[in-house]
Structures are given as structure tokens and as C-alpha cells.
Amino acid sequence: MVKEAIKKLKPYIPEKTIAEIKQEQGLTKLVRLSANENAWGTSPKVAQAILDWGVKGANRYPDSEVTGLRQTIATGLNVSPEALVFGDGLDEIIQLLSRTLLSPGDEVILTQPTFSEYALHAEIEGAKMVDVPVDSNGVTNLDGMLAAITPATSMVWLCNPNNPTGTYVTHQAIAEFMAKVPQSVTVIVDEAYIDFVTAEKQASVVDLLTKFNNLVVLRTFSKAYGLANFRVGFAVVAPQLAKILQTVRLPYNLSTFAEIAAEAAYSDQQFVQTVVETVADERQKWLAFFKKLGVLYYPSQANFVFFKINNADALSQELLHQGYLVRTGLGPDWLRITVGQPTDNQIVQQLIWKFADKQ
Ligand SMILES: *Cc1c(COP(=O)(O)O)cnc(C)c1O
To answer: Which among 23, 121, 243, 319 could bridge 324 via Cys, Cβ 3.0 to 4.6 Å?
Structure first.
């Protein structure tokens, strides 16, 4: 018998492959600006590391503890190696946390809108979703989330910067929030886009883990590090919870390829820095563009911008015909566009301008 909770489930709709869409649309070129991937690729050090490793040990199971990468990241983030739990992308970590911490009837507090996978996995566990809408600037409403906490609350998801709004809350705001949240509630801060924050030097709340046992911080190699295809994400958690998560997760969830690629990517902070600076420049141009266009948009600190425009579906179709894929389906007349290479951004801005002019 299929679980009741699963019968009602709306599936996560993954990206189609670029080749598939090109064929469907008869396009020779397609630029995907719908998945918040890194338009600058990944560090050349990754290719070298993979070539050096070759297929040595392909017949052997990988290191279940991911010892090399664990040490590298523990040193980089100044946390204990035991505080890290690795996953097959953050996707797996989101599933793992839900599977481990949620029981049927538990309440899960979410920003509305936010990343859909939090609700997906909460639903599978039979938990109850409590949505707290963003404020008029698209910013996560921390006071609203605090007010939504009840004795049944099990976890709070804080995506920071938030996907799809791109907005972020400060380190200080999260510290004050944590001080008011009961110990029994786990607060998960998904920092998938934290590298792109330029408004504040120390935006990550990893340092707060020494103060709050009920805090979990998530990071991924899929965005600023440009490794989406290798599937590497991790949680930084209190050691007691780390131990429990380690027993629930699959034993060989990261291939050696993934580990080696992530280590090489992490060792090239110069690459990340360049990407982050270029994204910040281009993001600024996007925000200025939307301001000039006179449409509603949110002040992004991530590598994408969320905006509202009349006939958004028709616009997304028009852009697709011109070889640009943007994200639809996140809200009526809202579109999310990933910051791309400068020439692509310019072309798409011209197309949007022309489209809006004809309306
Ligand atoms: C992209 C994304 C993830 C998923 O990251 P993977 O490591 O590729 O699974 C997690 N959280 C948010 C908010 C994202 O946008």
C-alpha cells in the first residue's frame, strides 16, 4: 500500500536536459537561465584532479567518511570534522533531515515562497506545513516565523538567501531569531547561495553553531562552485545530531569522483571569488534594468533575480524561442532568471524590454 501522504504528493519537476529542449523547440543554441547554475563553469583544477584520478579504484567502494573533503572543509570553515554530514547534493540532505526529524503531524514552518523540496519531503513524512509569507520586499518574515511556532513545531526552514526571492536576512537577525526559538525546534539555514552575498562580509551563520545546538547549516557545491553535476552538499550540525544523521544516510552516498572534484573546487577560492564578483556586477545591472522597466522585483543577494511582469508565460515562451530558458511556475506572473554571462544578460534584457513595450 502506498503511504497516504505520498498519494497527495505534487512531484518536484526537474529541469529537462538542454538537448531535449533544443530538439523540442528546434533550437541550435539554448542558454539555461532557469536552474541557478554557474554560467562560468567550474575551476580548471577540477578537470585536472579528475584526469589525474582517472578510473583508479573504480571497482572499489568509495570512502564512506569522505575523509579528505571532510578535513578540507572542516579546516576551511573552522568546525570540527565530526560536525559535517555529506550528501548526494543538498537534495539528499534535505530528505535526510526530514526523514530523521519529522513524525506524522509535526509542524514545519516555511517561508512562502521558498525552495519546494522542503515541503515535498515534509509531506512524505506526513508533517503539516505552516507557510509564512515574505514581506512586501520579498524578505523572509522572521517575526512571523517566531509567532508561528507552537508546541507541535519540529523544524523551521530558513533559506538564506531565499530561493526564489533572492532576498537575504542578516547574520544578526538570525542570531536574534535563534535566541528566541525553543531548543526543541530545529532551525535549518540553507546557505546554497551564501557565497553570492555581498551586502555583508560575514553572512554565513556557521559560527552560531557553537551557541545553538538546534541550528543546522546547509551548503552545496552546485552553485558558486559550479559542480551541480557532481552532486555534493553538506550539513554542518551539532555532533550529537551528526551521529544520528550518519546512521540514517546511505553508506556510500558520495563517489570518489564527487569527493575529488569538490576538493579541487574548494582549493580554488580565486575562481569562486571571480565568479562572485562578476555575478554581483551583473546582478546590479539586472536590478537597475528592472527598476527602469518599472516592474516589481526583489533586491537579490543571490545569482538570480525574481520579478513580476504582465503575461509572464508569454514572455518566457518568447525568450525560449530566442534560445533563453527562464524559470516559470513559481507564482502567477513571476519569473526567476539566473544571472548569466554579460552578453546573454544584455540580449535577454533587450528582449524583455521589447516584449514589455508591445504590451
Ligand atoms: C539548488 C538548491 C539546492 C540543491 O542543491 P544540490 O546540492 O544541487 O542538491 C538546495 N537548496 C536550494 C535553496 C537550492 O536553490
So the answer is: 319
